[in-house]
Write a structure and sequence with these properties.
The protein has 362 residues and is α/β, with parallel strands linked by helices. It has one domain: Alpha-Beta Barrel (TIM Barrel), CATH 3.20.20. It is built from 10 helices and 10 strands. The strands form 2 sheets. The protein has an 8-stranded parallel β-barrel, surrounded by 6 helices. The protein has a two-stranded antiparallel ribbon with strand order 5-6. Helix 5 runs parallel beside helix 6. The longest helix has 19 residues. The two termini are 26 Å apart.
């Protein structure tokens, strides 16, 4: 998701080594909670680290209280995506997210970890090196990157791992912008190999924000010997246009050319242009909308249903993830530090389930 508020003389042989498949490391068995090879029906629920401090506030369609993870599973969601930031942010540090992961895992949900490799939002315009990491040279930065990736794999033992978030322009700026191909692709090879060495069965995803850049980006990944399993694309009509035929054709082409699974890793849509707190929303006027889908509960359902159906109809195993369907206005109606997403959540302003959740069912 895009940000929501407003000398390389040394060649590292280990970075360039072929990523040979290895058996899982002893003590870290890969035990998926479901069939990772089936359709991934997912939701990013990272904001629950804040929302659930208020307790279980969610309700079903009739207004009856529900426990969020089993309720989402009952709607056909089989995977949950969690973003993780480096450092001590109270909401998205690894300790906070691990509490959610443990609850989700008890419900048999697949765990998709999204490593931002930053102390804050990582997106096409923002890829800051964590302040704790050594930026003096690429070797030291790579050592910190490798160590952190290993630690996160040990912490979460995920069912799938996303290495970087919307890395269209590279990551760990200014050291590894995409224009600095030696640095960028060597670091990607490093984190892929780190993951394979930890557990060769964990699928690796690389994710970009704009599907219209995907052919070039993944051609370059292949040309530079980066090892991965999944292609993740963001699609928001506000930023990426209205032509979903082009989106699906791109997904088909990417799969044909690269032999990878292709997933809509982020999408969402408003059910209203109103608001429930005093925190500015990302989607707030008619110009943000797809012309075929009004900002209504039915418009939200139809947009999501169209995309999920298109993904399910692909001839290859694919998937879809809704971004932040549980980021409701948890902090009260006058909060300026609440949700920027409550009008795109999958629950209304009374925290009651919306029709869009029915779109996830097979």
């Amino acid at each position: 998701m895009q940000k929501i508020v407003t000398g390389l003389g040394i060649v590292f042989v280990f970075m360039f080594a072929a990523c040979k498949k290895q058996a899982p490391i002893a003590g870290h068995p890969y035990k998926p909670n479901g069939n990772i090879d089936s359709f991934i029906s997912a939701m990013d629920v990272s904001s629950l680290s804040m929302v659930l401090r208020q307790g279980e506030i969610f309700k079903d369609e009739k207004g009856n209280p529900v426990t969020i993870f089993p309720f989402l599973k009952s709607k056909g969601i089989n995977s949950l995506r969690f973003r993780v930031w480096v450092g001590n942010d109270p909401n998205y540090q690894s300790d906070s997210i691990l509490k959610l992961v443990n609850l989700a895992r008890k419900e048999g949900l697949l765990i998709w970890i999204d490593l931002h490799y930053s102390n804050t939002w990582a997106d096409p315009g923002n890829q800051q090196i964590p302040k704790e990491w050594d930026q003096s040279n690429l070797k030291n930065l790579g050592a910190d990157l490798k160590s952190y990736t290993e630690r996160m794999l040990q912490t979460f033992n995920p069912d799938m791992i996303q290495l970087g978030n919307e890395i269209d322009g590279g990551f760990l700026w200014p050291k590894a912008r995409i224009s600095d191909t030696s640095a960028f692709y060597s670091l990607l090879r490093l984190v892929s190999k780190t993951t394979r060495d930890f557990n060769a069965q964990i699928p690796i995803m690389y994710h970009i924000s704009n599907y219209q850049k995907a052919d070039y980006f993944y051609n370059e990944l292949d040309a530079h010997g980066v090892d991965y399993d999944m292609i993740g694309l963001s699609y928001y009509p506000k930023w990426h246009g209205y032509n979903t035929d082009s989106l699906f054709q791109t997904m088909d082409r990417l799969h044909a050319n690269h032999g990878k699974r292709v997933i809509i890793a982020e999408n969402s849509y408003p059910f209203t242009l109103s608001w429930a707190d005093w925190t500015d929303n990302v989607m707030g006027w008619e110009g943000d909308l797809h012309p075929n889908y009004p900002a209504s509960t039915n418009g939200q359902y139809e947009q999501v249903h169209h995309l999920i159906k298109g993904c399910r109809n692909r001839s290859f195993a694919s998937g879809y993830a809704y971004w932040e369907g549980t980021w409701v206005a948890f902090d009260g109606p006058e909060s300026k530090e609440g949700s920027l997403w409550e009008n795109q959540a999958c629950f209304d302003f009374a925290f009651k389930a919306l029709p869009v959740l029915e779109a996830f069912k097979p």
